[in-house]
Amino acid sequence: MPRASGPLAEALAHRAVLLDGGLSNQLAAQGCDLSGDLWSGRVLAEHPDQVAAAHTAYVRAGAEVLITASYQVGYEAFAAHGHDRAETTALLRRSVRLAARTAEAADHEVWVAASVGPYGAVLADGSEYRGRYGLSVRALAAFHRPRIEALLAAGPDVLAVETIPDTDEAEALLTVLAETGAPAWLSYTVAAGRTRAGQPLDEAFALAAASPEVIAVGVNCCDPADVLPALEAAAAVTTKPLLAYPNDGSVWNATTRTWHTPDDPVPWPTRAWHAAGARLIGGCCRIGPDRIAALGALPADRRP
């Protein structure tokens, strides 16, 4: 079956759609080395077959959306490791092609979402969980514009503007999206009822409410306990479909480059998420194909 037969936005008007899970943890499970500042981008550059294998694992688990391996691919970061602009552009486009080939080989409809990670991701210092980089909205837009243009040239179904920690960066990204007209979802990373930078969630979600390019809005890479309050805040300011793909409740330590796992598993009240308006549901860091398969086996949680 060749990819998805229609726009993702149309599907979301009728049903919920299952996202994939964390790419980095699946690559690690496959034995890939993710050490160094380039993280999964290094695997994309050196072992693209492993990226394709990770996508395949999620498709076999039932995922209907594959998020590309472009999250941490940035021109400045890759230049520091010897990649010129043409090589980095090629890697961004490769990430889309790898996911598209997997989607085309699937036995069910699969959309390709090109990951646009935050500025903090390419710094590789955990600042995507803090935001407030000291850059203006204009500077952030200038950073994101060439990455988005390169990804769009490869023809993804949608842009996954994800793990955004503050409203300044969201404003910058929405500016670039308006220039392109490309469909996208906007996903914040949040904690304790606010963005990671500490802004009120109603203000954050309201930024996307009036954007015709944004087909869904919500949260990712956050504690599952933070999902429902965030969805409720989003539903209060927008009628757009909502999305949720949290991590497993672990906390990232950028100094040691390790995850601190909670003592007890954090519940995933997916029925409540769906009732609050979530139509794109999946997982982020440390959520693998088994968890995605389990989500897909809950049709009552996935259908309006």
Describe the protein's architecture and organization:
Its EC number is 2.1.1.10. It holds the Pfam family S-methyl_trans. InterPro entries: BHMT-like, HCY_dom, HCY_dom_sf, Hcy_S-methyltransferase. With 304 residues, the chain is an alpha/beta fold. The protein has a single domain, classed as Alpha-Beta Barrel (TIM Barrel), CATH 3.20.20.330. It has 14 helices and 12 strands. β6 and β7 form a beta hairpin. α6 crosses α8 and α9 packs parallel to α10. The longest helix has 20 residues. The two termini are 25 Å apart.
How is this fold's topology laid out?
Blueprint: H1 8-12, E1 17-18, H2 23-29, H3 40-46, H4 48-60, E2 65-67, H5 75-79, H6 85-104, E3 111-116, H7 119-123, H8 137-153, E4 158-164, H9 167-180, E5 184-188, E6 190-191, E7 194-195, H10 201-209, E8 214-220, H11 227-235, E9 242-245, E10 251-253, E11 258-260, H12 270-275, E12 278-281, H13 289-296, H14 299-302
Parallel strand pairs: 1-12, 2-3, 3-4, 4-5, 5-8, 8-9, 9-12
Antiparallel strand pairs: 6-7, 10-11
Helix pairs in contact: 3-4, 4-6, 6-8, 8-9, 9-10
